[in-house]
Amino acid sequence: MDQHIKAPITKEIAGSLHAGDYVYITGTIYTARDAAHKRMDEALSKGEDLPIDIKNQAIYYMGPSPAREGRPIGSAGPTTASRMDKYAPKLLDLGLTAMIGKGKRSKEVLDAIVRNGSVYLAAVGGAGALLSKCIKSSEVVAYEDLGTEAIRKLEVEDFPVIVVVDCQGNNLYETAMEEYKKI
């Protein structure tokens, strides 16, 4: 089923999404990869605030290439999500509602998705140049010294993703494999 949603993504919106849905996001999402996640984890361990309010937010695991002249961002393809698995449960418990990446997630992340009524969305790997056309603005908001791994605030329009794991724990990677075996 195709769904057009607005970001930030509330628990109610996340709850309306089902594994296998095609979703088009319009609004604000954030980027963060390994180094930014490590810094956020360190800040939390020290009792410090995060540089962004992650409640009801989506984090896109992406580090862009340099922007071409006249464009807000370069190629913007997804990073393998499992690289953030050791940090994701804590962020989900703090209110993060959506993660965008590619690839499978650990049991701990899957459990945290269900526990928190969140979702895991997949962007198509290898389509970074096409995905960048849905990004209308990009602004570094934290950890500028990390370069491409800095946290960015993106304004997106009809950004295409697929619901991989919904808040009930339905996992497209598992169900699709079972369907494929029947062929």
Overall body shape? globular
Q: Give the count of helical stretches.
A: 6
Q: What summary fits the major beta sheet?
A: 5 strands, mixed, barrel
Q: How large a portion of the residues is in β-strands, by DSSP E?
A: 25-35%
Q: What's the number of extended β-strand segments?
A: 7
Radius of gyration equals 16 Å
The run of helices and strands is EHEHEHEHEHEEH
Portion in helices:
25-40%
Largest beta sheet: strand ordering: 2-3-4-5-7
> Could you state the oligomeric state of the chains shown?
single chain
Cα-to-Cα separation, first versus last residue: 22 Å
Average pLDDT, rounded to a whole number, is 94
Q: Can you tell me the residue ranges where pLDDT is under 50 for at least 5 consecutive residues? A: none
Overall structural class, as computed from helix and strand content, comes to: alpha/beta
How would you explain this protein's 3D organization?
This protein is of the alpha/beta class. Helix content is 26%, strand content 27%. It is built from six helices and seven strands; from the N terminus they run E-H-E-H-E-H-E-H-E-H-E-E-H. It has helices at 11-15, 34-45, 88-93, 107-116, 128-132, 172-181, and strands at residues 2-7, 22-31, 58-60, 98-101, 119-122, 135-142, 151-165. The chain has a five-stranded mixed β-barrel with strand order 2-3-4-5-7. The mean pLDDT is 94.
Structure summary:
Helices cover 26% and strands 27% of the residues. It has 183 residues and is of the alpha/beta class.
Set out the fold topology.
Elements: E1 2-7, H1 11-15, E2 22-31, H2 34-45, E3 58-60, H3 88-93, E4 98-101, H4 107-116, E5 119-122, H5 128-132, E6 135-142, E7 151-165, H6 172-181
Parallel strand pairs: 1-2, 2-3, 3-4, 4-5
Antiparallel strand pairs: 2-7, 5-7, 6-7
